[in-house]
Structures are given as structure tokens and as C-alpha cells.
Specification:
This protein is an all-beta fold. The chain is built from one helix and 22 strands. It has a 22-stranded mixed β-sheet that branches.
């Protein structure tokens, strides 16, 4: 028995067309096949799914996505009075356009989001494009369930607008323009995640008195790695170019930075190391030289937010503006 559905509506889901096939009706194994073409807002799709017994973890990532959806839904199940959700074989193909993914990270959202999604009981595949802070983004990913855990892997590319970097490092650069070409992989498992990114600085232009006016970013590479560390996260950052070599390790929680270790900071005018323990409020600065054009204690920076910090300095040469200090031993406490 076959039924054609011309149109319909349920909970703001608009049914464009559908086919219902019933077969094996003269046996003890009566079956139904249903194929539906639906248009809707993504928020209404999530509300509809909330009315079902489908595990909310299966579609948790949809909660923050807004946009228009074209959806083809296929269902196969036995005709039983006490039908259980695990007896339903389902698959779906969806296209989302004019989308918006809210607060991907803090206040970072994906705008102008176009997304293609393929779903069945075993996996979710998706690919899409959009913009983050006026920076073009392309990505593809897969979600699957392994031993009762949901595993996600997303691979993509972000042409990150250089001007956006200024908000991460206030006071360190005078001007950044161009783009940072980033390839990335994000793996998430339940509430944890791992991020790997490699960037090309060829098209990035940076003016920084702190790095030195002769700093060269051509043929430069950036690496970023974030991994779970006990109940927190460990971060690794590495920048290498023709005359720059910077390597930094961090430990942080979702709320704050806990420690920072600069293994090396080599530029045309800098050569130092630093350890910053924010749990015990201790900082150690050492190396061959550090050059600071000016000191403005009212300027916003990482250190301007710190209080009761014990600071120990052991540098061969310190240049403050036009003044040079050789082998000074300095120790002070910032209130």
C-alpha cells in the first residue's frame, strides 16, 4: 500500500511532499517506509526533536544553530503498538542556509553559514562554509558513537583576518593586516576537545616595536595545539620565520589562564625566556636581552590585570627606551 502526501504541517514543520509505503500486511512482520521532504527553521526542528525519545546528545550541536532548513527524512520501522525508538531505522539529508552558529567560542560565532548534513543511526557527516569575524571559513566533519561516547572530528581552513589578532594580544602590536591562513583539526569527545592548527604567515603584515621593525614573517609557520591536561587544558604555540623563533606552553581552564612558559622568544631585538605561575603568583624572566620601548602601567595587557605578583628578573641586558642596563638583578612585587 502506497500513499502520496502532497502537503502538511506539524509544529511549524512544513511538509512539501512525502511517500508512505506499507508492506507485508498479511504477515506478523508488517513494515512501514516513509520518505518526507520538509522545510522549516532549524530552531523548530530542534523543538520537534525534543518531543521525541531520541537521545538529545544525538543532536546537541543543533541547539546553537539558526537558519532555514530543507530536510529529507527517511524512516523504516515495524508496525508495532509498543514501537521503541531503537527499532526505527532512520536517515536524513539536510541543507541549512542563511545560518548562524551562536557562540562557537566565547563571543565568536559563525555567520552566513551554509551547511550540508547527512545523518543515520551510526554517524553524522557534515560540511559547510561561513565567516568568523569577517574571516572566510570552510570545514567538514563527522560525528559517531563509539563505546557509548560521541566522537567528533572537524577539519577545515580559516583565512583569519589579521586585525582580529590584536584583541588576543593587547599592547603587543601596533598594527596587523592581511590574513593568517590556518588549517585546523578539532577532535571532541564528550566534554573534552583537542585542537591542532598550522598557519602560514606569508600574507600577514605585522608592525610591532616589541618584536622589532626588521621582523620578517615571510615563509613563516604557526603551530597551535590544545589538549586535555588533568582537569584543565594544555596549550602549545610555536612561531618560526626567517628571523623569529617563539615557543610558548600554557595551562588553562575554561575560565582562566593558570600558567605560561615562554621556552624561547627570539626576534631581531629580543632573546629571553619566562615562566609565569598564576596559581602561586610567581614570575621569572631570564635570558640574554629584552627591549621595551616604553612602559605604560595604565595600558591594558596580561600583566596589568595581575596583582600580588612576585617578579624575578635575571637578564644580561635590559633596554628601556634609550637606556641600557647590563646584568641587572631585579626582584619586585606587583600590588
Amino acid at each position: 500500500v502506497v500513499f502520496d502526501i502532497k502537503s502538511g504541517q506539524s509544529n511549524n514543520l512544513n511538509l512539501k511532499s512525502g511517500i508512505v509505503s506499507l508492506y507485508a500486511l498479511n504477515t506478523d512482520f508488517e513494515q512501514a517506509d516513509i520518505s518526507l521532504d520538509i522545510t522549516s527553521k532549524n530552531t523548530d526542528v530542534v523543538k520537534y526533536l525534543n518531543l521525541t525519545t531520541i537521545d538529545k546528545k544525538n543532536y546537541s550541536k543543533l541547539d546553537k544553530i539558526f537558519g532555514d532548513v530543507d530536510l529529507t527524512l527517511n524512516l523504516q520501522f515495524p508496525l508495532l503498538v509498543d514501537l521503541k525508538v531503537e527499532q526505527i531505522n532512520y536517515s536524513s539529508n539536510a541543507s541549512l542556509f542563511n545560518g548562524f552558529l551562536k557562540d562557537l567560542y566565547k563571543d565568536y560565532s559563525i555567520e552566513n553559514l551554509d551547511l550540508e548534513i547527512e545523518v543515520n543511526r551510526d554517524f553524522v557527516n557534515y560540511s559547510g562554509s561561513g565567516e568568523i569575524k569577517n574571516s572566510p571559513l570552510k570545514f567538514r566533519g563527522e560525528q559517531k558513537k563509539v563505546e557509548e561516547k560521541f566522537l567528533d572530528e572537524i577539519r577545515g581552513n580559516l583565512l583569519y583576518n589579521g586585525e582580529n589578532i590584536l584583541e588576543f594580544l593587547p599592547g603587543s602590536f601596533e598594527k596587523i593586516s592581511g590574513v593568517l591562513d590556518l588549517d585546523f583539526i578539532v577532535n571532541s569527545f564528550d566534554d573534552d576537545y583537542k585542537i591542532e592548527a598550522i598557519g602560514d604567515t606569508q600574507n600577514l603584515r605585522i608592525i610591532s616595536k616589541f618584536l622589532g621593525k626588521n621582523s620578517n614573517f615571510s615563509d613563516g609557520k604557526i603551530r597551535l595545539l590544545v589538549t586535555p591536561y588533568n582537569n584543565n587544558y594544555s596549550g602549545f604555540f610555536d612561531l618560526k620565520s626567517n628571523n623569529i623563533d617563539i615557543e610558548i606552553n600554557t595551562v588553562f581552564s575554561n575560565a582562566k589562564l593558570l600558567s605560561l612558559k615562554i621556552n624561547k622568544f627570539l626576534t631581531p631585538i629580543q632573546d629571553f625566556k619566562m615562566e609565569l605561575d598564576l596559581e602561586n603568583f610567581i614570575a621569572k624572566l631570564s635570558g640574554n636581552k629584552i627591549s621595551i620601548q616604553k612602559v605604560d602601567f595604565n595600558e591594558k595587557s596580561l600583566f596589568s590585570e595581575l596583582k600580588n605578583l612576585d617578579f624575578n628578573v635575571d637578564i644580561d641586558k635590559i633596554i628601556l627606551g634609550k637606556n641600557k642596563f647590563l646584568k641587572p638583578l631585579i626582584s619586585f612585587k606587583k600590588k
